[in-house]
Design goal:
273 residues, alpha/beta, Rossmann fold, nine-stranded mixed β-sheet, 9 helices
Length: 273
């Protein structure tokens, strides 16, 4: 791995690392916030949304100060594989910047797009090689497409994640335009294969051992058509999983919304890990 940035921040350091991903077969970057001290540190993953890289959340979410107080490492992965050899598309919701935290099975995506495995297999080992991490599970959160990833990865890999929250997540991708278009491209037309990446289906079939926090802005332009958080709340209630779903009056889908409530989410994870 190559460290390409290190800047002091809230007593700790903001770091950026580049490495060759054997799993994704391309070069990847990720960012870390490491609090001051010798550790061990509790890890929290922040998954970003469509069109983003690690940089959006690391520079706009404002999570580092609360993470420093909680002795928590923040891990900011990229949202997709990158590079000239990696398939892409003019549609901003497909291709580079839009990995959807799943493993694609269809050409031309299957050779590189394995972001769920990258987040749960390759990246944790890299971070553990750099830092002394506390024993036990990690936390995971995310925004929009990253909220979808946080929910689905937590429920699919409960041995890895002990806390989960989300900002404006896509919770029912099999039922909304973003998800149906992208799932068809990445996974094909067999809709039964889509269910393992649908948070509403996963909460109904797998459940969750603890509670879940979700924030959504009441003025989010994607709320009614693409996000549908009420579907997840209904499915969680039927599965007897407690969900705190907060509609934040007047907030939109941007990082102005995320940074307004990020401290709540950091505290949520710190209390549960």
């Amino acid at each position: 791995m190559e460290q390409i940035a290190s800047v002091k921040l809230h007593g700790g350091t903001h770091q950026v690392w580049r490495h060759k991903s054997d799993l994704l077969d391309c070069d990847m970057e990720f960012a870390l916030f490491v609090p001051q001290g010798d550790g061990p540190f509790r890890p929290l993953y922040f998954l970003s949304g469509l069109t983003c890289t690690w940089e959006n959340a690391a520079t706009k979410a404002g999570a580092q100060q609360a993470a420093a107080a909680a002795n928590m490492v923040l891990i900011f992965p990229d949202t997709s594989p990158r590079g000239d050899a990696v398939a892409n598309d003019e549609n901003y919701a497909l291709g580079q910047g839009a990995g959807f935290y799943m493993t694609a099975t269809q050409a031309p995506w299957a050779s590189h797009y394995k972001m769920d495995r990258y987040i749960t297999e390759e990246l944790p080992a890299l971070v553990a090689s750099l830092l002394p991490l506390a024993e036990g599970k990690a936390g995971i959160t995310g925004h929009s497409m990253g909220g979808h990833g946080a929910l689905t990865l937590a429920m699919t890999y409960p041995h890895l994640f002990g806390s989960v929250s989300a900002f404006a997540p896509i919770v029912a991708p099999t039922q909304v335009p973003w998800g149906r278009d992208i799932f068809t491209a990445y996974l094909g037309t067999e809709e039964d294969e889509w269910q393992r990446y649908d948070a509403c289906h996963l909460i109904a079939t797998r459940g969750w051992e603890d509670d879940i926090l979700i924030d959504v802005g009441s003025d989010d332009p994607f709320y009614a058509e693409q996000l549908r958080p009420e579907l997840f709340a209904e499915a969680a209630k039927a599965a007897s999983v407690p969900v705190t779903l907060r509609y934040q009056e007047g907030y939109d889908h941007s990082y102005y919304f995320v940074t307004s409530f990020i401290d709540d989410h950091i505290a949520w994870h710190a209390a549960r890990l």
